[in-house]
Amino acid sequence: MTVPRLAMRGVAKRFGATAALRGVDLALAPGEIHALVGENGAGKSTLMKALSGAIRPDAGEMELDGKPFRPSTPHEARQAGVAMIYQELTLAPHLSVAENILLGTEPSRGGILNRRAMRRTARAALTRLGHGDLPLDAPAGQFTVAVRQIIEIARGLARGCRVLVLDEPTSSLARADAERLFDVVRGLAAEGPSVLYISHFLDEVQALARRFTVLRDGRAVGTGDVATTPPAAMVRMMVGRDLAEQFPRSARQAGEVLLEIRNLAGRRLPREATLTVRRGEVVGLAGLVGSGRTELLRSVFGLDPVVRGDLVVAGRPGPARPVRRIRQGVGLLSEDRKAEGLALNLSVETNLTLSRLPAVFGVGRMEEVARPWIRDLSIRCQHPGQAVTHLSGGNQQKAALARLLYQEADLVLLDEPTRGVDVGSKVQIYEAIDRIVTRPRPGAVLLAGSYFPELLGICDRIAVMRRGVLGPARPAAEWTTASLLEAATGAAA
Q1: Closest CA to 392 of 88, 153, 145
Q2: N or C terminus: fewer CB in 10 A for the chain?
Q3: Are 210 and 223 spatial neighbours (Cβ–Cβ below 8 Å)?
Q4: Nearest CA-CA partner of 287 in 433, 147, 198, 416
Q5: Mind listing the pLDDT tens digit for each residue in 328-340?
Q6: What is the 3-state secondary structure (H, E, C) of 310-359?
């Protein structure tokens, strides 16, 4: 019988009264790509912190290649061959590629840095990943997210990687970059290291992994072969129930114009955009990363300058600053929730009510207002006063969306609203979007995204942006995933 590369048995961890892990078992074979899936708050992050030495489990045992593995620090875990690639990358952007790859393990002679050995080791690691031509002396911060991920993986290889953990690695990647990353991961696993792949995208799990494990409420509730397990069965394990409808939507009726854009251009992006959005409809902005869809939303909200064209919001012409847009009934959910979407040091209840703070003055009023939204969106938190920074990524996203719902914005601008969100929570977000455009006084939603099945499922009309130019909006029924991709890449031209 083959000794597992990694074995975790009965791993448990409590934080006060909260049981984050309840005796989890997990095993990886050498060279295996194994998917770890589950809802936000299911325990995935805590389990990975135990594996990486960031926390000590209260019970259970771990083994690497049949030998006890009890890292007390992340450095010990890295030295043992466990490499963690987090969703939020951890490179030092001002340091060179080579310096990032050898950071903390720099070779030296008599206390003097051996830069020749550094370059040799860094080059060898990058060559294994098919990126041997990457300039070693260039600052890591100048590269795209896709290339920075390769540098992070190379850092793990340079230290003797036996287990590579990838946490939502494609959440900020264009599809082509994601496919190239998959090729890198497959090639790496073929050489012997095991890969633990964490993702909410079940299509990626099916394309990449051989086996999977599902976590729910801190327990491993299922494991099996990806090839013989339908996605619906995985979803059932993740949420503990059947999802009646993946893309819920009610009857909608388009009404008055809330947003009108004509020949709009920003300082760099967008280059040319014309679009009308009405009450009672969800309009999709499809496009790849860097196409200009984010900049268009920011221009409408007043975060980026408008240098040309006409912009009319709720009958009010011309650009305006964000504070005025909020007063005009406009809300924005930023793609970067940590930097722009949330005040991480503040509580869940404060974040949720920030756009209408005068309405929650009074003892206990803020908590009173926040609790129904926390319940309706199933935001997993210990209490409304908990700092939002301690929530999982998906629950942070739902807290940011709850702020817009409480604001009762007429025009809601959403940029990748389900990024890093599990399957069950996505359905709750779709339901919330549907409520915005079907409430007694309907609002309108302009939704930018690169996950085309989502846009097709929840939007009434979709326009495609490519290289800063927005194409005409057409009914969603006239698009397919393939035609959206063709328009986004220019293949249809």
Answers
A1: 88
A2: N
A3: no
A4: 416
A5: 999 999 887 777 8
A6: EEEECCEECCCCHHHHHHCCEEEECCCHHHHHCCCCCEHHHHHHHHHHHH
Residue 271, token pair as written in the block: 């280059």
Q: Is it true that 6-239 and 257-489 share their CATH fold?
A: yes
Q: What angle do CA 99, 196, 25 make, to 5 degrees?
A: 130
What is the CATH code for 6-239? 3.40.50.300
Note whether 355 and 373 are within 8 A (CB).
no
What does 111-158 look like in DSSP terms, one character per residue? TEE-HHHHHHHHHHHHHHTT-TTS-TTSBGGGS-HHHHHHHHHHHHHH
Strands 219-225 and 211-216: antiparallel
Q: What is the DSSP letter of 331?
A: E
pLDDT for res 490: 74
Q: Which amino acid is at 207?
A: A
- Determine the Cα–Cα distance for residues 474 and 139; give it in Å rounded to an integer: 42
CA distance 162 to 148: 21
DSSP state of 110: T
CATH fold for domain 257-489: Rossmann fold (3.40.50)
pLDDT for position 241: 67
**Inter-axis angle of helices 423-438 and 393-407, nearest 10:** 10
Q: What is the pLDDT of residue 144?
A: 80
Residues of the chain with pLDDT under 70: 1, 171-172, 174, 241-244, 491-493
Collapse the DSSP code of 488 into the 3-class scheme (helix H, G, I; strand E, B; otherwise coil) and give the result.
Answer: helix
> What does the domain layout of the chain look like in residue ranges?
6-239, 257-489
H runs (alpha helix) in 379-480: 393-407, 423-438, 452-458
Phi, psi (deg, nearest 5) at residue 386: -70, 140
Which residue(s) pair with 113 in the sheet? 108
